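Reopening: structure tokens for the adenosine-5'-diphosphate complex, inputs below.
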Amino acid sequence: MNIILLGPPGAGKGTQSDYLRDTYKLTKLATGDMLRAAVASGSEIGLKAKAVMAAGALVSDDIMIGIIRDAISDSNCPNGFILDGFPRTTAQAAALDGMLEEEGKKIDYVIELKVDDAALVARIAGRYSCKKCGAGYHDTFRKPAVADRCDACDSTEFTRREDDKAETVAKRLEQYHAMTAPLLPHYKAAGNLRTVDGMADIAEVTLAINGIVG
Ligand code: ADP
Ligand code: AMP
Ligand code: ZN
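Re-run output (same inputs, fresh job):
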């Protein structure tokens, strides 16, 4: 099964794609995570992406398409994949369509998480994650079961994203509306777009997604 999660920054794509990865044994391909790893390692892609990400702009289509071309191979995704954060432009969507056709693969579901901009700002402002395993948390909406201890790996070290600052968030939302929202009609026409109310609680959103893919 191959799934695309579409939605603005803070909509819950990462939260729900972790669930889909664990439940359906799919490979999670989160391009933001891949880029952050590239920045941390100081690779050529990381050097190119660093300032663009810090400004809340989009990394070039050429770089992103190259990353995904390598990542969606059968050896990397034996049970299929979840795309979280890709495609983000019409050029990326067209390239993905081409790659899938070449490889005889298809996207089963494009799931849109619909959330108001006002709610996104609060979600992003309270977001943090485990430094060791990457599990995602929120100051208000998803606290660890034991305070300051990761549910998944017991670590006590957490981190916040540099681009989750208020100034950068506005730019990222603007990019979503200008560059990514136009993909919705493309997938609607293809017939596999499903829209989920992303304003609901995390568990309710998971239930709705399960109702689609389960
Ligand atoms: P995205 O990957 O789309 O940018 P995340 O999954 O990182 O979004 O979610 C952003 C923040 O909001 C995280 O701190 C997460 O714990 C929290 N969150 C995710 N889904 C919900 C929800 N349905 N209701 C409230 N908070 C949520
Ligand atoms: P995310 O973790 O999905 O919020 O992505 C963080 C940042 O990485 C974005 O603000 C962009 O700068 C960059 N990025 C991630 N995915 C893409 C993509 N598909 N196309 C362009 N830029 C991307
Ligand atoms: Zn952890």
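The chain has nine helices and eight strands. The beta strands are 3-6, 27-30, 81-84, 109-114, 127-130, 136-138, 158-159, 193-197. Marking as resolved unless the reporter disagrees.
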